[in-house]
Amino acid sequence: MLRDVRYLIVFAKVVEEGSFRSAAQALDMSISSASLYVSKLEESLGIALLYRNTRKLSLTQDGKAVFEVAQQMLQLYSDNLCDYKNAKRRGGGRLKIAIPAILIHSRLVCKISAFAAREPDLHLHLQCSDHHNDIIGEGIDLAIRLGDMPDSGLKARKIFMLDRVLVGSTDFLRRYGPLKHPRDLQELPWIGLTMRPSSRTFFHPSQGSFEIFYNPVATVDSVEASYRLAACGLGLAVPPRFLFDTADGVEELLPEWKLPPLPAYAVWPANAPDDSPAQRLISHLNTQDTQLEACELVEF
């Protein structure tokens, strides 16, 4: 059936152009292929559509009837394809984006919003979750992912680095006393994250690195939820620095020991076209502001 549709389109173009040569040029195919397609259509239908020799061709009576159907199909195909191409040139269409929920409160959302406002014919579909979405399975055009990228067959570009901070509530620090070294943290209560291992590596400018492992007293699937539980005194958490606010009743612990920042990547399917809305958004994210400002807290 699909082959017959292709054959009908070629047949209609041959009749419209008046020759196999002109139709082949219009369809960007060889003359022999155009002739073969018409012959295959005749064979499929069991009728002769064209009488032809090396200099001219004419429609048979059956050919005239089939041409009416083929012409409608060709016109429908041409019109709809042109409408779609014109919409793409105007910047229309759909852009499905997935970002970590924790970045809802960052400048990243404002930058995405500014991009969408600049393209009024573009429909934006934004998914927010701290879990990694299945980019291919869910038809996502662009995802922002935090952390090192595995080799997944997807394309990726680093767009900023996300600073993190170790925090605990003021009451928590009073209960567990002064903390001087990361080894003091291993036996303390922690808020775990389902998407991260229960370990942390700290770096000191003169003492090097130190890795700890812990057993969380609670596990959540949201970075912001871990921060809120820490603010309530349940345990330690490592939120993005832009989320940290002493007004929440939390304090930074071991400020001389730094956690490595998380790289943030724009990730997209490998076969996405270079002129797609996703690629324009990536360019917008790379050129607007600085990488550090990409994750400053925004007051809405």
Topology:
Blueprint: H1 2-17, H2 20-27, H3 31-45, E1 50-52, E2 57-59, H4 61-89, E3 93-99, H5 107-118, E4 122-128, E5 142-146, E6 155-162, E7 167-169, H6 170-176, E8 191-193, E9 199-204, E10 208-213, E11 218-220, H7 223-231, E12 250-252, E13 262-268, H8 277-287
Parallel strand pairs: 3-4, 3-5, 8-11
Antiparallel strand pairs: 1-2, 5-13, 6-13, 7-12, 9-10
Characterise the protein shown here.
The protein is α/β, with parallel strands linked by helices and 300 residues long. The chain has three domains: 2-89, Orthogonal Bundle (Arc Repressor Mutant, subunit A); 93-161 and 262-295, D-Maltodextrin-Binding Protein, domain 2; 167-252, D-Maltodextrin-Binding Protein, domain 2 (3-Layer(aba) Sandwich), CATH 3.40.190. 36% of the residues lie in helices and 21% in strands. It contains eight helices and 13 strands. The protein has helices at residues 2-17, 20-27, 31-45, 61-89, 107-118, 170-176, 223-231, 277-287, and strands at 50-52, 57-59, 93-99, 122-128, 142-146, 155-162, 167-169, 191-193, 199-204, 208-213, 218-220, 250-252, 262-268. The strands form five sheets. The protein has a five-stranded mixed β-sheet with strand order 4-3-5-13-6, covered by helices on one side. The protein has a two-stranded antiparallel sheet with strand order 1-2. Helix 5 links the parallel strand 3 and strand 4 (122-128). Helix 1 (2-17) packs across helix 2, helix 1 (2-17) packs across helix 3 and helix 2 crosses helix 3. It starts with a helix and ends in a 13-residue tail after the last helix. Mean pLDDT is 85; it is low at 289-300.
